[in-house]
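Blackboard transcription, Thursday session:
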Amino acid sequence: MKKAIALVLSAVTLLGTAACSGNSGSSSSSSGSAQSFENVVNVCSWGEYIDESLIDEFEAETGIHVNYQTAESNEALYSQLKMGGVDYDVVVPSDYMIARLIKEDMLAELNYDNIPNFSLIDPQYTHLSYDPDNLYTVPYTWGTVGIIYNTAMIDDEITSWSAMFDPKYAGNVLMIRNSRDALMAALCYLGYSINTTDEAEIREAFALLRGAKEQGVYQSFVMDEIYQKMEGGNAAISMYYAGDYLTMLENNEDLAYVVPEEGSNWFVDAMCVLKTAQHKENAEAWINFIASTESNLRNMDYIWYASPNQEALAQYPDYYEEEYGEALDEEIYNIMAAPPEVLERCEVYVNLPQETLDLYNELWTELGI
Amino acid sequence: MKNRLSRLAYPYVLWMALFVVAPILIMLVYAFTSADGGFTLANFLRMGRYSVVFVRSFKLALIATVICLLVGYPISYFMSREGPGFQRTAMVLIMLPMWMNFLLRTYSWMSILENNGLLNRFFRFIGLISAWNAAFGTDINGFRMLNTQGAVVLGMVYNYLPFMILPIYSVILKLDHSLIEAARDLGADGAHVFLKVTLPLSLPGVLSGITMVFVPSVSTFAISQMLGGGTQTLLGDLIEQQFLGGAYNPHLGAAISLVMMLIVVLCMYVMNRFGEGEEEAVIL
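(Written on the board underneath:)
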């Protein structure tokens, strides 16, 4: 009897999941009724990270329906992948997370024959430490992390990470809600490598962060809420990504961006295909489409993150001038695509060993208390 | 005949088995295992460290529940004594915010309470901020309302108040009026009638109202994240962090969820015992 119940239960579960996936498939292909619901690609990226008209264009061009979803952070994406239940084909994690996914055997090797536009990517952004043989990735954007501050609210010129920990600015600082970046700021300020695995150094950085929190320096911990808070003058200082700063600048001219003198992180976000992907060829078609010069130009214009496509990066000032009828401010271009002298003092994240990751997780939970 | 109809309950029994019982069992398994799959109590041994968060969560949820009760009871009481037209309008107004998405509603509070938000700009406009600065010798640009415990409680009250009003209202509405008349006939004055008849008889509504406000308040994470800004971590945040946030540790997350559930069940049990006692007292 009990066995029978178990059997029925599992049968129902299976039917249920089948029905669910069938549903999502049929609703997603509603744009072209003749399509089978297999002809899709499931993409998971970050919020406000694509010119959405590119999605429509890709669908019109190829007939492949794009299910575009977003995750909040690399860590949130990782949790989703680990918990299972998501059916993403393409993900766009950052360098260190890519290294971790490769190490845990979660990414599929790409067939670069299907991605001819890969040849347009500047070699400077390929074969990096996270994917030394470049078997898994096609870079999507790159940029720096820095301090964003409101010059109307802060009289000093900010050049150092100390601003993120200074009780002088109590209640006016937004800390990033992402353990790796938050500790990066503290590690840089203390003069340590952002990839350190030395427990004492990490704990010292954490103590700095925690001390600042206890002194009320942080108004709140934010990810994408930062836009509303910085644009509206609700907070004076924060740390975030260069591209997002430029988006904020469009809505609030008082904002300034600086890559602190102690250095910072420069990152590459790259498109990868998961090992579990059901639509690998569609995924590669999507990656190829996004890697094109035209797509990169439009994305760059829309999200303000620098493109790794050398044609697009070089053409962007002209593209901008044509599009808006005025020359692109060189300063803005240099914030978007940091010049070599800035990149020189920045480091790329590498994946940390498991015990260091555990320490990060433990400390991050502790910071919340 | 009765047996045949009872088959209609099967779908829900199945539903419950799949989506209530099974998840709880999975949670139990996770809570008592470590990442490598072995049995462990380590997740629970770490719990002491989070006692501050437990205390904060239960405190804020309790405050929100009390406020909801103090605001909700009188409204329900007076609403039930008005004409049907008024009742219908009031009901629509109470339900109206719930037609909007919960996250959107909470997000709006963020823009209202910000340092440079709607309220502070209004205060500045009417000169309240400068008057405050003159009176207290301070130099503030606005009141700090967001990212405080007050804001979190406000968010809870705002979102869950209807869940307090509705059950109380429906119980009071169905009160047998002859009991109230009898009490009056026997010489009780208004206050006595309320304390001895109406209040005890409306207790079941109050109890379910308290449950429906307290339980979601104690486990919320969206409200504390948006209105508390991550500086007022609640249990919900702590749990969410273990599953989706920076600290990936579903085993610890399950253990915290389990302990939270046990405390909530305990609270409910004690409260319902108290409620039963009251009802018996009434009958006696």
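Lecturer's comment: The mean pLDDT of chain B is 89.
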